Amino acid sequence: MNHMNRRTFLKVLGITSVGGGSLGLTKMAFASNPPASFPENPKYGGQVPEASIDLSNGKVNLNPDISMRNSACLGCYSACGNRVKVDSSSGEIMSVTGNPYNPINAGSKLLYDSPVTDAYLAFGGYKDMGLNHRATLCSRGNATIQSHYDPMRILVPLKRAGKRGEGNWKPITWEQAVNETVEGGKLFAETGEDQVVDGLRQVRDLSTPLDSEQPEFGAKANQFVFIGGRNDGRTPLAVRCNL
Questions:
Q1: Taking the domains of the chain in order of start, what are their residue ranges?
Q2: HSE of 79 in the Cβ direction (CA atoms, 13 Å)?
Q3: Is 120 helix (H, G, I), strand (E, B) or coil?
Q4: What contacts 217, CB < 8 A, 6 or more positions away?
Q5: Is the pTM for the entire model greater than 0.70?
Q6: How many CB atoms lie within 10 A of CB 125?
Q7: Helix runs in 69-188, H state only
Q8: What's the rounded Cα separation, in Å, for the pair 151 and 144?
Q9: In this structure, which of 170, 173, 175, 241 has its CB flanked by the most CB atoms within 10 Å?
Q10: Using CA atoms, how far apart are residues 32 and 137, in angstroms rounded to an integer?
């Protein structure tokens, strides 16, 4: 068996590297050339602008078919702002960008008393305002439009319509959801279950001790634990019930 010494190994390695690099350069050069044409994407491309800007004087000409709404992003818990582009005729959300008034989105945010037209300039080339005040959103914030139109998005309260673990649910009204949550009762009698579920009215017992032998635990109501992944919508109910 022939043994390769260090010098021979380095020579072979160098020749291999040069050869491989030469072959790769051809593909890299081809990839760097711009394509002759771009494919059409009617779903996401070619959106009409929300406004046009006269770069000579900064005049903003609004597109009456588009509405821009400065709001807050609920993609996570960071309390970023967002700027939603809406089709005025259909109400459809077209895109989501950053809010130039929010310090989390913009490094140099607009003052809150700045006119709304400045928000349009913050995304344009007039006096470099698009560079100084441009607001951005993270990928999760940009994906909120997908969450909004997700076919699996839950828009109404769902109540269990079968045994636990079967995955059977039925939609109910908000009035029924609030009433059953507060009043309790035999909520699953339709599925053949006979147990009585305590509602918030029964749980909020401020006179009965939680444990008569350990009074330091306080009233029975102290056994209630309020946990939510996100409290938007839950907090008003909790405050209403004085939890």
A1: 51-148, 158-240
A2: 1
A3: helix
A4: 209, 210, 211
A5: no
A6: 11
A7: 116-121, 129-132, 139-142, 144-148, 174-183
A8: 13
A9: 241
A10: 28
